[in-house]
Amino acid sequence: MGEPVRDYVCLDLETTGLRPKFDKIIEIGAARVRGGKIEETFETFVRPGIALPERIAELTGIEEKDLDGAPSIGEVLPAFLAFARDLPFLGHNVGFDYAFLKRAAVNAGIGLERSAIDTLKLARKFLPELPGRRLSDLCVHYEIPLRNHRALSDACAAHFLYQRLCDEFYREEEFRPVPLLCKVKKEGPASKAQKERLKKLCDRHGIRPDFDPELLTKNEASRLIDRILAAHGILQK
Predict the structure, then answer these.
(1) What does the alpha-carbon distance between residue 195 and residue 215 come to, in Å, rounded to a whole number?
(2) Position 1 pLDDT exceeds 70
(3) CATH architecture of the domain with range 8-179
(4) What is the pTM for the complete model shown?
(5) Residue 70: DSSP 8-state
(6) Residue 97 and residue 137: Cα distance in Å, rounded?
(7) Percent helix, strand and coil across the chain, each to the nearest 5
(8) Where in the chain is the domain with CATH 3.30.420.10?
(9) pLDDT tens digit string along 209-231?
(10) Could you tell me which of 237, 187, 191, 236 has the C-alpha nearest to residue 213?
(11) Which of 92, 141, 149, 232 is catalytic?
């Protein structure tokens, strides 16, 4: 029997919602692990370019003021990938986080292919008797400290959870990293015409923008224009 993987990057994201196509990353937390011990951490807010939903602010404790001066995902991603190097990812439901990172990478023209270990899949297989297998449930089960719904705390909790699962259940074929598969089409940035039209619509109807036009994709700009037109009618020349 081989040894458990001891070198990896545990990670977690906080986002504006659950849909990678429509929602945005607002926080990245990660820890680079060597020999089973945390070597270095990475933590940053990310400016999403859209309004922070109230429910997400309540859930995470993150506020608009935390994000206003933060870098965009296009600025953060190269630094994060340099931090992660070529190590496999590890996380709780890590495919969710990867889907957001993959979309951001594709839109930025950055290649991203990675294998990962998913502690949620391991918990489902080896702890079916537990009433819940959320990260918070498993941290209670194993008495792992957790500051719930903050990226770095969740990432580190997944690391400690993985160690406990290895201690109890390790089997090489079940615990090895597997390739993360996520197909994403590149979305171009909003055009100059779209940004100008959004500005005119907001000015005309007295709308205070809750988005950053420089961070919008073409599809996002189109949806915003359609939403304003549906609510206020067609802009007259």
Answers:
(1) 10
(2) no
(3) 2-Layer Sandwich (3.30)
(4) 0.89
(5) S
(6) 19
(7) 45, 15, 40
(8) 8-179
(9) 888 899 988 888 888 888 888 88
(10) 191
(11) 149
